[in-house]
Structure formats: C-alpha cells, structure tokens
C-alpha cells in the first residue's frame, strides 16, 4: 500500500490570513454532500464507486486474443471517453513511447488518440499507421457522440479498404442501451464492452473506458482498482478534508481552482480534472429549479514550468485562486548531476533533478504563503497505476460531494446539450429542424463589428 497525504496547512488561518478557522465546520457541510452521494450509490442511481468491485476477466480474456498482434492502437473518443485514458497513458507510458521500437515497447502497440474532429490530426494518425497492423478502440457512452462517430467512420473506411476481417481490428465501448453504435457493432459482430448506465462519461475512467486500452498497453488494471479502493478505507476522512477546503474557498468567492502537479507525467491528469470539475459543478440551476449560476473555473497548471509563466499572476495577482499542488516523492529514473561544467553552478553538484523539482515546489508554497495566497498539497510516493487509481477515485468522490453540498446535480451537463442540438440541426439530423431554424434566426452578427 502506497501512502497518499493531503496537506492543508497553507489553507488555514494559522498560516494564511483569511484562511479556514474551523475546518470541522466545513467538514460538516461536506458530510451532507457525502451522505447524499452514499444514498444515491446504495439506491443504484450512481455507479462509479462500484467499478472497483469488477475483476474485469472479460478484458483480461480479450487481451489474450490481441496480445502482440498489433503495432498501433487508435483510441477514438472525446471528453470523458478520452481524457481519463490520456491521463493514464501520459502518466504510465515512457516519454516518447511511440518512438520506441516494437521490442522496446515490450510487444505492445503505439497509441494514438483521435479525439477532436480536426482533419489534420485524424489524417496524420492514419498516415502513421498501417491498417493491417492496427486495432481501433471506439469509446462513446451514448453511442451517438458526433465527433467520435465522425472519426470512427473515417477510420472504418480506412480499415475496410485494406483489411480482410475488419471485426478483428475494432472493439467498441459503449453503454448497454439500444444505441446506434451498439446496433452497428452487433451487426458487424465486433467485440463490445459495456459502460454501466449509472456511470457518467467523466466518471468512467475506471470502467472499460480507461481500463481496456490501458490493458492493451500492458498496464496492471488490478493496481488501478486497488488504489481506487484505498480512498474510502479511512472512513472518507481525506475526501471530507479536501472537499471542506474547496467548499470554504468557494464560499469565500475564490472563483479559480488551480491544479498544479510537479511532474510532467501528470499534466494530462490536470485536463481530466478540469472536465470533472467544470461539467459537474458549473450549473445554472440547483435541484429545486432555482437559478444559482454555480461554479468555479478549473485551471490546469504544471510545475515547475508555470513558475516561469503563471506564477507571477498567482503570487501577485488577485486573491481569487485556491491552488492544489501534487508532489511526487520518488521520481523514476532519478538523475544525479555528477559533473558541473560552469563554475557559477557548482551548488548543483551531486544534486538530483527530482530533488530539485520538489525543492522548487516547497519554495513556491512558501513564496505564495508570504503573500497570503492559499494552497493545499497532495503528496504521493510514486506515479504508478495504484496512485493514479487513487487520485481518480479521490476526485470522483470530492467533486460530487461538493455538488450535493450545494444542492446541484453533479452528474448531468445540460449546458453542453444545446450546442450539440444546434450542430445536429445544421448538419441536417432528423428531428432537429427547429434548432436549425432557431440558429438561422438568431445567429446574427454585424459586419462592421468584424474587423
């Protein structure tokens, strides 16, 4: 078992002017949200917490059938269907993984993520791959995500023209409702893996959405689940403490929530966190139908890089941000600076680069503290499947706890839907004619205001 610590020192009034005076008051508020979440889980309305109970024997059996057969894996998905896996790939795979030879990769495929409907990106993904040597993993919970289906149709055509048995090259991950993609997959006899109906896309990383492509790349999916299980082993204390800090600063009108890991390997984790926070908490209405326009803005940042860009604003700009640092105690492939060739930098001799980045983190914490700028820190021992599973589940608890504390639904995303409906209408999808008409009547701009 690896240790994960949550350090809230520089968010409380003992060290920060205007910080939290009584954390227990805010833990009690968080408890309300946690109690509602647990109730919804018990009533089977919410299912992400139960993903840790899976043994994923179906995934493990599938992996046996594809092991060593393909040079490339293309993951087709967007939003919650790609961000979690991208965080996994960036954290666990070697930097520059796709440049390694097949043997250096251990016989596992290179990986490409077709997320955006950007023709440039989609073209170069297929240009870099050979159809006969490629397996494609298509992920969409609804089975109707237009960006994913568009990329899939392009890649399907690319495969169909070259391979003998296309079903050997495609695997589908979607919910088990009667959706269009699932119907197509059944007709073609593709392998299908289910996303539970009570697990939303941004809460699905520990479902086949993240675990299947991770397993294709040789990762230990049991370790992800073990780390996720550990989150609730201390009677939810770490969840409540972390949620309590965020709740305090939300009520203090700090409208920016910065996530700042001090490891390039967790850069994509920050983007995953931003979707989880923004879609779950950014709501116009509460559960009673009252207009509240709730939410704070998540901002991904990276240490030590952003000490040379954003930190100037964080330190000397307005006090409207709570910063969450992530520290990695033990960095893989530690580098010891044994020789220094410029005399003025002799102080670096025998220093380790991993030691340097952690010193920079602590120095940044103190510099912010001197300006009464609040921060908290999550400290992990290593970056591996266990700690990543822990971080995923930690925030998947913390965010809905905050949502329920304020009587909002952290599992819907109505604000996303209207833009989709306009797009459907403009593309001629049946049933969306009125949205097309509304768009044409109201998407009005003045030429003299276009410079």
Verbal overview:
This protein has 451 residues and is α/β, with parallel strands linked by helices. It has helices at residues 23-42, 57-66, 83-92, 119-127, 146-160, 180-188, 208-216, 221-230, 237-251, 267-281, 311-316, 353-370, 385-405, 414-426, 433-442; strands spanning 4-7, 72-76, 110-114, 134-139, 170-175, 191-195, 256-261, 283-285, 291-294, 297-300, 321-328, 375-380. It is built from 15 helices and twelve strands. Helix 6 links the parallel strand 5 and strand 6 (191-195). Helix 2 (57-66) runs parallel beside helix 7 (208-216), helix 8 crosses helix 13 and helix 14 (414-426) crosses helix 15. The longest helix has 21 residues, at 385-405. The radius of gyration is 23 Å and the shape is globular. The mean pLDDT is 97.
Radius of gyration from the alpha-carbon trace, in angstroms: 23 Å
Number of strands: 12
The string of secondary-structure elements, in order, is EHHEHEHEHEHEHHHEHEEEHEHEHHH
* CATH architecture heading of the largest domain: 3-Layer(aba) Sandwich
Give the distance, in angstroms, between the N- and C-terminal Cα atoms.
60 Å
Q: What's the main sheet like?
A: 5 strands, mixed
List low-confidence stretches: none
